């Protein structure tokens, strides 16, 4: 019969405690490093661009003169673009997730589709830009319009919404569905009244992340030929447009020639962050309403 060596146990406990302390500070350092970089970027952007934000800058037209340049056209273009992305991404993403998770039979084809969707989530955004250029701009002859840009960005974030929605549906307790079936409800009634409302807060969380990525994408819009200097304001889905990420991109490039363009780019970044904050706040409010309701 072997007895426990108290000295050996004490050494192991001390080692684990030291390792725990070391890893705690390592993880704290990793967290602080990200926050420090983010803080530096925000401070630099705000200090450089805040003084350039005024009513004329927000409501004015784009101009080659930095003192007269405005971004209302880019703001409206971003707004119309996100309307298309929200509509197509949420409906197609949630519909595909419901079918794959609750209707489709499990098998090789189902596994193949799931694998491809997961792989599509990691495809570079410029590839989606080439796809949008080929299908929406040239084949369907939409041109460089809001609809073409919105559909391209919808394809970009669609895999993210599908995967996150499936995970949310899987997290719903199976007993809720079984209880609904036991009361005589059909499958669609169970999905509509029980499963989907329960999973909706988590689905909206994934959708928020997807839309946050879409609103800041530039590469697909560059491939689609979206202009940076567009005088008319877009007023519909078939109008040509520019967007805030495009304007920031070109102003950053032109800053090597005109120094004031760097300040305009910083001011546009602040406006884009405010739009993103408002969009996320609305989505979070809706999500919390459903969490309290169900």
From TrEMBL:
InterPro entries: MetI-like, MetI-like_sf, Phosphate_PstA. It comes from the Bacteria. One of its GO terms (cellular component) is plasma membrane. Residues 75-283 form the ABC transmembrane type-1 domain. It is a multi-pass membrane protein. It is found in: Cell membrane. One of its GO terms (biological process) is phosphate ion transmembrane transport. The chain crosses the membrane at residues 21-43, 71-104, 116-136, 142-163, 221-241, 261-286. One of its GO terms (molecular function) is phosphate transmembrane transporter activity. SUPFAM superfamilies: MetI-like (SSF161098). Keywords: Cell membrane, Membrane, Transmembrane, Transmembrane helix, Transport. Pfam families: BPD_transp_1 (PF00528). Belongs to the binding-protein-dependent transport system permease family. CysTW subfamily. This is Phosphate transport system permease protein PstA. The gene is pstA.
